[in-house]
Each structure stands twice: as structure tokens, then as C-alpha cells.
Amino acid sequence: FNISFSGKEIPVTSKLLDCKITYMTGRECVLIQADLLLFAEYNLEPCEDPGIPQFGSRIGFNFGVGDILTFSCSSGYRLEGASEVICLGGGRRVWSAPLPRCVAECGASTTNNEGILLSPNYPLNYENNHECIYSIQLTIKLWCSFSLQFLAFDTEASHDILRVWDGPPENEMLLKEISGSLIPEGIHSTLNIVTIQFDTDFYISKSGFAIQFSTTACRDPGVPMNGTRNGDGREPGDTVIFQCDPGYELQGDERITCIQVENRYFWQPNPPVCIAPCGGNLTGSSGFILSPNFPHPYPHSRDCDWTINVNSDYVISLAFISIEPNYDFLYIYDGPDNNSPLIGSFQDSKLPERIESSSNTMHLKENRGGIDLFGVFFSIYSESN
């Protein structure tokens, strides 16, 4: 006779003679001794392969009863559904939950140091009439800022607009406003918070954007007013170089380096500034002279002296480009100091258009009258035979 049963264990049966036992769907156990059954282990039928979510991944490739599969999504996508499923036993093999989905949402908030932000439904077309807000914020490394690099960008030009804010939008620090199909250049924040706002209208929709963000260890050192900067790196060991526009002097070192000390990141030394100095010695075939703090008001009750030296075979030609009304006098000497012959003393609009020296040296002295008014002179000198 045949005995059929189910379960993980074969019940103890004694003194079954000449019997044949069928366990589930095929493995046979044959009685070879009156009080002992020898049997082989039977593998239960597995669950079906559930698949892998689009834009996601799966850990686990065994589908037997009790096996567990774990799902996750690529950066920028959110898992919708169960992250773990178990193959259940019983009369019918099924997973404990359906296959989850990986979705790109309208808006997101993250405190990660790096990641990817995606437009809704990316890489499929985004939906119309949406306002999506994405927020990136570091709550620990307050001295850090962010770098945003565009991996893909395609929106309806002038209608579906992406705005990037330095900090929250209420700060009104708009870094960039973008639309169209050209991939924008990278964006660097100065704060530890970045807000991205994506507005779509009612008409055409496109594939949208993919933005990679990461922290930059040192803050943006900026570009000095009246100067330039060479270099954009902000990681430890990165170096940037500064220089000033003609007529300005660099106050500080021209080269600074991003330094990391434990969990602190900073520039060493501090970023420099460009100032128009009160006086100085100028050499070379041409150059500029600016009143102190140009183009802003200069300090009053302070005298400034400039000496210009050119090649001994040349003389100096001085032309005034700009002069504002003030109570200061400018004295110009034909020689190296104020003991040299006086070419003239000038005030306000009484300055001549052009002055020439008789030698290769000229001395300028601005005498401040103590009245804090806005006064600027701006001149250029050049050698002339």
C-alpha cells in the first residue's frame, strides 16, 4: 500500500511490511527493515524568480522556502515597496511581498555628503504642472559647501525651469536659473545648504535632469574684488592662486591651500584681498595709479606718495582718466621726490589731460584736506622717447 504525507519530517512508523511511501512529489522511501525506514531528503519546490526592479539591484539568488532576497535602488531613486521578501512554504510557493519599484520622485531631502538628484520619472518624461523642491543639507560639517555637476539636462526652454539656491530660497541667493537642452556647467555653493526648485508648466515635458552632488571640503574662497582666481579645487591639498587687476595690490599670499586638520577644513593662509594702495613705487613701461580704496571713498587726512621709475632712456607720460570733485590737492614733481622741480599742483577738474616728465622719474603726492568726500584720480603712465 501507499502512504502519502506532507511536512518537513516523516512520521515514525514501525512494522510496516512491504510498504511503499511517496513523500510529496517524487522521492521514494522503501522499507528495508521492519522497524526502520531509510529515506532521502526532499527539496521543496522553489518560489518563482521575482526579477530585479528597474534602476535597482537584488542581493540573493536562492528561491527555496525560507530564502530571503534584499532589494535596493540606484542613487537618486526611492524604493517603493518591501526591501526584503521571503519565500513562503505551504501548498503554493509565493514570496511574502511583490517585487518593489524604484521611483524618481518630485522633490527630495537629503543629508548625505554625496548622491544624485533626479527629475520626476527620470529617465522618462517628467509630469506637467509640478513644483518639485530638492534640499541638500549638512548638519555636522557646517564649514562644507557643495559641488553640483550635471550628468544630463533636457527641459522645455523658458518654460520648465530649474533654479539652484545657495541656502533656502528665502535667502534670495540664486546661484543659477536654467532651462533648455544644453548641459550646464558645474555649480558651487558657498553654504552647507543647497535648495533646487524645478517648475514645470502645462504643455511640453521632457526627460529632465540628473545632478550629481558632493561636498567640497573647504568653502569657496571666492574671487577678490578687483582681482582674479586660478583654480577651483576645494579638497585637502588643492591650491588656488590669486592676482589683482592693474593698479591694485594683493594683501595676503597669492597662493593658498585647502588644509584638513581632523574634521576641520580651512584655507591656509586666508584668502587675500586686492586694494588700491596709498602710494608706492612703480616700475615698468606702463601701469595704473589709483586713489586709495578705488572705486570707493578713500580715508581722509592721509597723504599718499607715488614714485614712477622707467628705463633711463625714456621719459614719463601721465594721462588722467577720471577725477571727481574733492578738496584734495595732487602735486606732481619732475623727479624722484617732493624736493624735485614741481610740475604743478592740481585740484578737481583743473587737472590737465596730459603731463610729461623731463627725466625717467616722476613723483606724485596727494595731500588730503581732511574732508571726507569721494575723490578719485585714475591715471596711466607710459614711456615716451
From TrEMBL:
The UniProt keywords, alphabetically, are: Disulfide bond, Repeat, Signal, Sushi
> Where is each Sushi domain found?
45-104, 216-276
Pfam families listed in its UniProt record: CUB (PF00431), Sushi (PF00084)
Keyword Signal included in the entry's annotation? yes
Organism superkingdom: Eukaryota
Q: Give the CUB domain ranges.
A: 106-216, 278-384
Recorded hits in InterPro entries, A to Z, give: CUB_dom (IPR000859), SEZ6_CSMD_C4BPB_Regulators (IPR051277), Sperma_CUB_dom_sf (IPR035914), Sushi/SCR/CCP_sf (IPR035976), Sushi_SCR_CCP_dom (IPR000436)
The name this protein goes by in its record: CUB and Sushi multiple domains 3
